[in-house]
From TrEMBL:
<dbReference type="InterPro" id="IPR017941">
    <property type="entry name" value="Rieske_2Fe-2S"/>
</dbReference>
<keyword id="KW-0560">Oxidoreductase</keyword>
<dbReference type="GO" id="GO:0016651">
    <property type="term" value="F:oxidoreductase activity, acting on NAD(P)H"/>
</dbReference>
<dbReference type="Pfam" id="PF00355">
    <property type="entry name" value="Rieske"/>
</dbReference>
<keyword id="KW-0479">Metal-binding</keyword>
<keyword id="KW-0001">2Fe-2S</keyword>
<dbReference type="InterPro" id="IPR036922">
    <property type="entry name" value="Rieske_2Fe-2S_sf"/>
</dbReference>
<dbReference type="GO" id="GO:0097194">
    <property type="term" value="P:execution phase of apoptosis"/>
</dbReference>
<comment type="similarity">
    <text>Belongs to the FAD-dependent oxidoreductase family.</text>
</comment>
<dbReference type="GO" id="GO:0051537">
    <property type="term" value="F:2 iron, 2 sulfur cluster binding"/>
</dbReference>
<keyword id="KW-0285">Flavoprotein</keyword>
<dbReference type="InterPro" id="IPR036188">
    <property type="entry name" value="FAD/NAD-bd_sf"/>
</dbReference>
<dbReference type="InterPro" id="IPR023753">
    <property type="entry name" value="FAD/NAD-binding_dom"/>
</dbReference>
<feature type="domain" description="Rieske">
    <location>
        <begin position="60"/>
        <end position="155"/>
    </location>
</feature>
<dbReference type="Pfam" id="PF07992">
    <property type="entry name" value="Pyr_redox_2"/>
</dbReference>
<keyword id="KW-0408">Iron</keyword>
<protein>
    <submittedName>
        <fullName>AIFM3 factor</fullName>
    </submittedName>
</protein>
Length: 541
């Protein structure tokens, strides 16, 4: 019996937060005649005047002042919702108790230097403001008033904020633009993943009120890409990072199914595949990467997938149910797909060139422990070999032949053998690209061309904690931070990146969390029990 519990904020609660003052999501309106530009800052109702509706307010005594020591957190109940009460340096703070990313209980997180870090995926919130300061996730936490009376701690809060547990930061809007020209934008963002979206949102949060255009080859508005391999039957609207109304409300235009073919830096113009040209003032390139395909015989047969889109993931689940699946590559994607399909498919086989999964990343001992967990969940490994041929019957995949001579029955094949940066269109542009195809940026996410920034999986950047070594870190959290830093520097804030890289993966109910950048380690120090998968590993050099 499989029980799935999903906590979803009702659409009407979510949309309440993204309404303009007249209660309707404001459409994008540009007036060509007249020269006046009208902008206003739309503030989240709670932030502007938290208690403008007395019926929406609750006040409760939650504890005695001596109940909490400095550096302690406690989840407290106000009757119609909970809050997180924090005591640091003798002061009390109260804020939302759930991480807005996926609802993790923040009381189980870490309080340090005025910030709370989420226990699941590492998002970080300032206890003084509730603002998100490290990612993943897009929203901040609501803050509540705290008062002390007769040695008792009282919290005063908006009921709506207690229920939604999230706060969209104040954002600028661009209601009407004079001399509006379709083929001209102030900021053009190529790519609509986490880096592109966070860049657009940060610009608006910082009061930028000119035109922003995002373009993507995808059919969908920005969505939670890590979900494609972790929760493969998710539909696009379930994993959308923001609803459609959000983009309308904050005047962020998204052009879907639009591919940029070239960038002309001299004339500050992006040329699209269909011939359309768009001029820009500032440019962000956040195109991510392209999965590598197999180069063996029969690679064009049906039912062989790289998982790039929600449609790919959904199709694989449908084809794999009660059938034979072969996964090529014990990458994060390959292993997550294997874990997801293990209970659904008749058989899951995994083919990998290395002797253990994740050897380069986690080291041999951790890799072996993870492999053992997979084997006890009916996943069969074929290591130190690769695919030599894909055989078909009536055009559809039937067998996968390995170089070792082994023939595997296969109704569907998922390929996870790595990726290359999607930067081919920049070859003649003059933008600095390294030998592997990565865009080279500095700590401000600037390329060698003024006004051109790059972010996300397609870049190498100097990592502060490794003596500014140029690294490529294709993590979801890092893409968010890149987008934020790029936006701040488009606005000349002079902000440098100093984030600690963080990633997580979840397989068979176990989650592995990894902080830092251990590339080139020569020893692994393990504390705890590897067999029980209750351990900490330190990667040293």
């Amino acid at each position: 019996v499989e029980v799935k519990i999903e906590v979803v904020i009702p659409e009407k609660e979510r949309s309440k937060e993204e309404m303009s003052p007249n209660g309707k999501a404001s459409p994008l309106i540009y007036k060509v005649n007249g020269t006046a530009r009208h902008y206003h800052l739309e503030e989240h109702p709670i932030a502007s005047n938290p208690y403008h509706n007395p019926k929406d307010v609750v006040e409760a005594s939650v504890c005695h002042v001596k109940d909490l020591e400095n550096g302690q957190m406690r989840e407290v109940d106000l009757g119609c919702g909970k809050a997180l009460l924090i005591k640091e340096s003798g002061e009390f703070h109260a804020m939302g108790h759930k991480c807005p990313h996926y609802g993790a209980p923040l009381v189980k997180g870490v309080l340090s230097k005025g910030r709370v870090r989420c226990p699941w995926h590492g998002a970080c919130f300032n206890i003084g403001t509730g603002d998100i300061e490290d990612f993943p996730g897009l929203d901040s936490l609501p803050r509540f008033q705290v008062k002390i009376e007769k040695e008792k701690v009282y919290i005063r809060a908006s009921k709506q904020a207690l229920q939604t547990q999230r706060r969209t930061k104040m954002m600028a809007k661009c209601i009407s633009l004079s001399n509006y020209n379709l083929s001209n934008t102030n900021v053009l963002i190529i790519g609509a993943g986490a880096a592109g979206l966070v860049c657009a949102e940060t610009l608006r949060q910082e009061g930028f009120s000119d035109r922003i255009v995002m373009c993507t080859m995808d059919r969908h508005l920005p969505y939670d890409r890590p979900k494609l391999s972790k929760s493969m039957d998710s539909h696009p609207e379930q994993i959308a990072l923001r609803p459609k109304e959000f983009f309308r409300t904050y005047d962020i235009e998204v052009l879907t199914e639009m591919q940029v073919a070239a960038v002309d830096i001299k004339n500050k113009t992006a040329v699209f595949k269909d011939g359309f040209k768009m001029e820009y003032n500032k440019l962000l390139i956040a195109t991510g990467n392209t999965p590598k395909a197999l180069s063996c015989k029969g690679k064009e047969v049906e039912n062989v997938f790289n998982i790039r889109t929600p449609e790919d993931a959904n199709r694989v689940v449908k084809l794999a149910t009660s059938k034979n699946v072969v996964i090529v590559g014990a990458s994060f994607l390959g292993m997550e797909v294997a874990a997801y399909l293990a209970e659904r498919a008749h058989s899951v086989s995994l083919v990998e060139l290395e002797e253990v999964p994740f050897k380069k990343f986690f080291g041999e001992r951790v890799g072996r422990a993870v492999m053992k967990m997979f084997e006890s969940n009916r996943v069969k490994f074929y290591m130190q070999t690769e695919v030599s041929e894909l055989r078909e019957q009536e055009g559809k995949l039937k067998e996968v032949v390995l170089k070792s001579g082994k023939v595997l029955r296969a109704d569907v094949c998922v390929v996870g053998v790595g990726a290359v940066p999607a930067t081919g269109f920049l070859k003649q542009s003059g933008i600095n690209i390294d030998s592997k195809g990565f865009i080279v940026v500095n700590k401000m996410m600037q390329t060698n061309i003024p006004g051109v920034f790059a972010a996300g999986d397609a870049v190498t950047f100097p990592l502060a904690l490794r003596n500014n070594k140029k690294v490529n870190i294709p993590h979801w959290q890092m893409a968010h931070m890149h987008g934020r830093i790029a936006a701040l520097n488009m606005l000349a804030h002079g902000m440098e990146i100093s984030t600690v890289p963080y990633l997580w993966t979840a397989m068979f109910g176990k989650s592995i969390r990894y902080a830092g950048h251990g590339e080139g380690f020569d020893d692994v120090v393990i504390q705890g029990d590897l067999d029980e998968l209750k351990f900490v590993a330190f990667y040293t050099k």
